[in-house]
Amino acid sequence: MLRIHFSGPDLGRTRLTAEPDPLWETAASLHRLQTKRGRGTYAAWLRFACEKLNDPALARTVRHLLLPLFPRAAYFPDFLTPAAASEGLSPGLEAIRATPSARVAAEVEQLTRVVTSTPRGLTRLAAAEHRSELTAGLRAYYDALIAPHEATIRTRIEAERVFRTRSLLGRGVEDMLSGLGPGLRWRSPVLEADHPTVDADLHLGGRGLRLVPSYFCWGSAVVLADPELPPVLVYPMRHERAAATADIADADAVPLTTLLGRTRALVLRASATGATGSELARSLGISPGTVTFHTKALRDSQLIASVRYATSVLHTLTPLGLALLAANATRTRANSGGRRPSRPAAGMDLDHE
To answer: pTM of the full predicted structure?
Structure first.
């Protein structure tokens, strides 16, 4: 078990990442390739990954470079998931290239002690010129296996962020920490995280904690091995097996067969900031059954994502839904000379209540 100790200042400095972290998602997805755990949830992505790995050059990079560096074990090097990656893949890869050689050498040496099958040739990464090979391999892997599913990953993480932010604003940071999910328990002032191989204490010491929900993380939360680095907790989001298998597929596989009407357009707009079914019913003055009918149609058309948290289902926009609203708003402003319309725009009144 991992125990993370908070002080008063740590609670005030705890923050939730606003965007998917591309290098943590890369690390977690490489772990998915090395275990049968979670295969039901990620079955469609695993099939996609196997197809992509038929490319000999990519398969060679994954087999001989990335999998040895990211073993599904008690340790992999911290320099592979720098904080700069929270700003995007390119800043993260640049931070890997800029890591001091002495630190890279020490962390790779620690990896060889923990995972005795680690190829000794990885020690060459201590030389900056060899890290260009690594960052090129990480980019190739990300572009081939992760980027095609960015919309799904972003949608799920945005839903998680909306839900946690609502908890934070409504009841405070301790309430947010108490509901992070299975395997995580808040026992003030300690956050306990179940872990099969780790028994340690992490004292934040006033630095706060960066919370990173991860789409590909499964089972146990993850922290950096070096307690002196800025603290980060990468934790798995809840996945519903059937929904996860469907939503990882290409969006084109689910045709937009249902035209939007007035009520459905209102439900879509109300979901822009995240809303539960009961909140939609109250704010729009419609019955829960009507909400369920319209949210199902919007979800089947890939315009919203619906994620269950305890007894509530939170609805948020997908990138496609956001783009549809943005395009409609632009068209409405153009048609009205910039004035706000008094009712949903023409063309949005096509379905029954």
So the answer is: 0.73
